Amino acid sequence: MGMSAFYGPPKPEPDMIALILHAINYRVIFLHTSDVYGPHTTEIFVGKALKDGVRNKVEWASKFGIDYTDGKLENLNKLVEEGKVKYIGLSEVSASTIRRANDVHPITVMQLKWSLWSRDVEADIVPTCRWRLYLPTFQGENLEHNKRLYDRVNGIARKKGCTPSQLALAWVHHQGNDVSHYWNHQGRKLQPEDPSFVHKINT
Q: What is the pTM of this model?
């Protein structure tokens, strides 16, 4: 997203293609884009970066808006049957929408905002995807509680020798083998330790 939209001016195409290849070289194997990023700009960056056999090294997901009532999901189902699309996933939808969509075609992946600070999805959406789980969510009036939690996260990060953001990503990573974290990149050069550090932090 940050390569072409929403976070400052669009980045130079050669720099972004080089960044994608740099990330793949450091074992980043999942790339996520959308037709609205640019629009279409990030998809073009990725397409150009994945030439000459690089495509086989990664999974590439791109999302777009869809109306579940107009038959478009059935059309995606046909694309899967034709081998043009490998999987169908959803992004930021309700638990009821997940269930309705899954009746048309198995939903393989769900993109959602889930972090130490955004845990409301644990009440309904996450259980719909995999298991029945409830953990309290943070509410606006709990600001002081959140501040204390943030201080604790900083303290744990210092003990682990990492940044708070790396620790937060590690927390997401360790929620299960069916959960994958990703960076919303805003142009900073990817460091070699970024993709691998979350694997090294002990829970």
A: 0.60
